[in-house]
Amino acid sequence: MSETIHDCGSTSIPLRLPLELERDIFEIAAYKDLGSAYHFLLVAKRVYQWIEPMVYRVLLRFNARLGRKSRPYPLLYQFEEPRQEPSPRLKQVSAYTTHLLLQDICADVAISILKLYNNLEDLALWAISGPYRPLARTLTTLKLQRLSISLHFLLLQDSSFKFDPTLFPHLTHLEIVDAAGELDRVWSKLHLLPRLSHLALSTPFFDIISDIRNAVDTLLHDSLTLKFLILCSTLEFDFGREDPRVVLFDASRLSIDDWEHGARGGRDLWTIAEGLQRERQQSENARC
Questions:
Q1: pTM across the whole model
Q2: Are strands 12-16 and 2-6 parallel, antiparallel or unpaired?
Q3: Domain range enclosing 240
């Protein structure tokens, strides 16, 4: 990034910004407008090297034909070969990706994609169909800190599956999108996740309220690390009045856009819930 100035003798002297400042300008602009970031890749080789990791830090793979809003950057499926095999380009940039969302694909395709991403920290797996066990083995090879997963499709196809919390030693944030109906197979082991501090249980409805209450009470009693238990539902609960760790959240607000916003550093389910908890605590302190 440079401009030209002229001295008294009309000699052109190129003026170049310091590289550190130039890099800051491009990175701030790319962060503010990701669509422009893809154009920045064409400016110069040095700019390409600065911006490329930002462009591929967050990737999404979902069915773009479902009417969701268009995005100014390519989705993951655009990097795939005709048989949904990852392209050489995707393999080349996979090291940059730390946040990944996969939705509406089969488990085999999810596995082939996940094997590329050794640096994943944050993963969303929604509406994945197919055998769960091979996918679970792949997940345990990743050092995930955050996981959002819909288990219903997977568990229906593997009645013998049992959740093993020891396979996820780094997990701090877990969201189970369709939490109802899997109390014995999953919920009973959640308190054993060694670093779990944030847990969200999301579903438009809970089938058996008494079972949900018993499972939540047990989880709150047994977990030594849990700081937030977010219940995402359209139903009303009174758990929050009994335990300050519980935050109630409207399930209808959850979406791909919410997940992506959080992955890119904005407000998401977790930060909103933390804000609600702070407001409640401040309100209670003010009454004392």
A1: 0.82
A2: antiparallel
A3: 57-287
